[in-house]
Amino acid sequence: MSDAKPASTPMETHKHLTADVEGKEVDVHHYRSMIGSLMYLTASRPDIMFDVCVCARYQVRPKDSHLRAVKRKFKYLKGQPRFGLWYPNESPFDLVAYTDSDYRGANQDRKSTSGGCQFLGAILVSWLCKKQSTVSQSTTEAEYIVASYCCSQVLWIQNQMLDYDLSFLQTPIYIDNNSATSIVNNLVKHSKTKHIEIRYHFIRDCVDPALLRPDEMIMILLLYLDQDQEMDKSVLKFTEPDHRSEDLLKTLRSYSRTISEVEELADDRNNVLVI
What we know:
Radius of gyration: 20 Å
Structural class: alpha/beta
Distance between the termini: 24 Å
Largest sheet: 5 strands, mixed
Helix content: 25-40%
InterPro entries: DNA/RNA_pol_sf (IPR043502)
């Protein structure tokens, strides 16, 4: 891999991974060790989060096509060795969350993938990419489920911040599906929502003031995000080497720095950390 040519994207643009039943089998332990190394790296590289999770679905019987996809990620990392998250000191300190879903993205079982990220001001502190456990029958259902996932993460961050005497009530969660926000704000059971699992409906308790006690405040504000107004930040899927991916990475505060630039910025008190 040291002599390999760097790749511009972590996965191929127009070719999706499949089970490849008739493909050539590869060493399972070697494949899983490579996936484990990449999963460890996703703690500071959100740009490969979605692609690594896709390859991780084929750890039981990996084929040669899956191994080539994993190697492509290492080639991509070779071309971006100093890419990481930048945390500036002078940043607003308000909690904001964004969600999205890759509807029916899994070719084998047609399940959707949940994606989301949480910001403290301009600082990316948490992100998620996970295949949903049930098959969504519409984009609305997929977006509603991922909003519930994101709500759980936001509640956890809110509770953690209370230990530091920081309150983040009424945290906005932005979602790019107007129908999903309507389901959350409307407590009436419609025929098209009866099949959604009950555990995902807890988000209504965090949004609707009528379900709270008089001494409680609304913990979550679910808002519609117009993609024309602000670029989506959620499903961390970078497959196109275009300007949109570059702008999205900058929005996530992900930059590529040289060693000299890191040392220079580290001396500046306005910047605190590069991972």
